[in-house]
Design a protein that fits this description.
A hairpin with a 6-residue loop joins β4 and β5 (526-532). α5 runs parallel beside α15. The chain has 560 residues and is mainly alpha-helical. The protein is 64% helix and 5% strand. It has 23 helices and five strands.
């Protein structure tokens, strides 16, 4: 490839990247994400980004673990420990360059989404051609699953970026058996694993690629085992240190029927994105490409197809076996290989139809040659039909609540308890952290963690800690909680402690000074902002809060 060709190709990639950024930003806008709150794990990722941002901005003040522990006591929605720090280093640097707002975080998510699609373009163009690659890249950007993840602030897309880059290197290793490609694969795989351990499906991809390619002789190649050493050295120290926190909660989730249930649900999720015709064509593409691989064992394209098929299979089967919650976003990495194989399956169908018409002399050769392109276009239109139906998100009013709380809390005792469901509690914490300009200066307490014996993994093992509203009141006064944000929504009121607080608000009005009430979306109750009079004049008891709320996994938080 000469210099002119390389420059021309880079210009095309840059133009595609710009177009993908625009498309993703438009879908974010249409989803109304800039006017609504973050949901689910996105809140934890954002608060952890603020943690890293504030630590760097403060000039690396002392022990980072002590800083993180203190931060967690203020804002108990930190993901460090559950996840390694790689993503948060990147996101905090972005926050330093731009702003530390949720809006800036969403822009970063859009950019990372475009990077993922560019790697999809690179991968697909090498096996299908540049034109097909561009179409597939933009189609992936518009898939409902990808759109939802890119419209939030999650780590699944960055994992996918490193995984797609890693399989490009591994395809080269299959073809050349070079140390350089083995090392590059190792570094990219380690980067993915240092975002989250769920990228361990790459360890499944490797034997699957060997099986599909039939290159079992590589097991005797010394460089084949090099990634085990490199990745182990790079990631094991972190995961050994955080093992207890990493495995907490998942131990009770696995049953012998879970893999079958998970596999069924993940295949259903995939079908809901690429449609049932897409699933059928994906299967056709897999079968046809495996035949191609076996017929061309030394072809570089065959090695690329081997890792594409292996990555798709590895993601689906690995997630089905893991005893974790079944979530759509865990299939993000599988979207690129899935769409590539759908396109190939459409080509196979189109070539078959063209051949049938040719044998019967029904169409001219010129028209028959267009049939495969028409079939590919048709399947993309079928997939894009549901994908282009974009439903705007509705907010949960926690941004408005957080602003009101930050304006009301006294500087002497800025302790607020959020009494809602698990998702909205984390949403409130993220919003409060965003508006705290002297971070960390406010204290957010999750009622589910304090007034429940066990919140449990994904909030499924909740049990109330106290047996009466009076006991709940005593705990609020013991902790010197100044303000309570009480969510009267139906889901929030399913938890006993929230009903107890509601009883206290309704039957003991002398205890409270109401400062506001904000209606939930859909008229699902109100968010009541209540100041507890007995705590309003107290001073914050930081040693007590530290003893009560420091992280309790491993050794984190046990020493200054």
């Amino acid at each position: 490839m000469n210099e002119t060709t390389i420059v021309s190709q880079n210009i095309k990639y840059f133009l595609c990247f710009t177009g993908l950024c625009v498309i993703i930003l438009i879908t974010q806008y249409l989803q109304n994400v800039y006017a609504t709150e973050l949901l689910s794990d996105a809140n934890g990722h954002y608060v952890t980004t603020l943690l890293a941002h504030d630590y760097i901005k403060a000039g690396f003040p002392g022990n980072p673990v002590s800083f993180a522990v203190d931060y967690f006591i203020h804002y108990p929605s930190i993901r460090i420990g559950n996840n390694p720090p790689t993503f948060y280093v990147l996101s905090s640097l972005w926050a330093l360059i731009t702003t530390d707002s949720i809006h800036a975080a969403l822009v970063l998510s859009a950019i990372l989404g475009a990077v993922y699609c560019i790697f999809t373009l690179i991968l697909s163009s090498r096996v299908l051609g540049m034109g097909a690659g561009v179409i597939i890249a933009f189609a992936v950007a518009l898939l409902p699953l990808f759109r939802d993840v890119a419209g939030s602030f999650l780590i699944d897309i960055p994992i996918g970026i490193f995984c797609l880059a890693a399989i490009l290197s591994y395809a080269r290793f299959l073809n050349t058996q070079s140390a350089r490609s083995a090392v590059l694969f190792s570094l990219l795989a380690a980067a993915a694993l240092m975002i989250k351990l769920s990228a361990l499906f790459l360890a499944v991809m490797v034997p699957m690629a060997i099986l599909i390619s039939g290159k079992f002789y590589l097991l005797r190649n010394k460089y084949f085992w090099l990634p085990v050493l490199i990745i182990g050295v790079l990631i094991l120290p972190w995961y050994l240190f955080t093992f207890e926190n990493l495995t907490e909660g998942a131990k009770k989730q696995w049953t012998i029927l879970f893999p079958l249930q998970a596999l069924t649900e993940y295949l259903s999720i995939l079908a809901s994105n690429i449609t049932l015709p897409g699933i059928a064509l994906l299967g056709a593409g897999v079968i046809e490409r495996i035949r191609f691989i076996r017929s061309n064992p030394n072809d570089a394209a065959a090695d690329l197809w081997s890792v594409i098929i292996a990555l798709l299979a590895a993601v689906v089967f690995f997630q089905a076996l893991m005893p974790t919650n079944i979530l759509d976003r865990y299939l993000i990495t599988a979207l690129a290989p899935a769409m590539i194989l759908v396109w190939r399956g459409a080509r196979v169908l189109g070539e078959y139809i063209s051949d049938v018409f040719g044998r019967r002399g029904l169409l001219s050769e010129n028209l028959r040659n267009r049939i495969p392109h028409l079939v590919c276009a048709a399947i993309i239109l079928i997939i894009m039909g549901p994908a282009l139906h974009i439903k705007p998100a509705t907010g949960n009013r926690m941004a408005e609540v957080a602003r009101k709380v930050s304006q009301t809390l006294p500087a002497s005792n800025p302790v607020v308890m959020i009494a809602s469901d698990g998702v909205r509690e984390s949403s409130f914490i993220a919003q409060l952290a965003q508006v705290d300009r002297a971070r960390p200066s406010l204290f957010a307490i999750r009622a589910s963690r304090v007034l429940g014996k066990e919140e449990g993994f994904m909030n499924i093992d909740y049990k109330p800690k106290f047996n009466s509203p009076e006991e709940v009141l005593a705990e609020l006064e013991r902790l010197s909680v100044t303000m309570v944000v009480l969510d009267r929504a139906k889901q929030a009121q399913e938890w006993r402690h929230n009903r107890d607080i509601a009883w206290l608000a309704d039957h003991r009005p002398e205890l409270w000074r109401p400062v506001g009430s904000i209606q939930n979306p859909g008229n699902d109750g109100a968010l009541s902002l209540l100041v507890l009079k007995s705590s309003e004049a107290k001073m914050v008891d930081f040693p007590l809060l530290r003893r009560e709320f420091r992280p309790n996994s491993g050794n984190i938080g046990t020493e200054d």
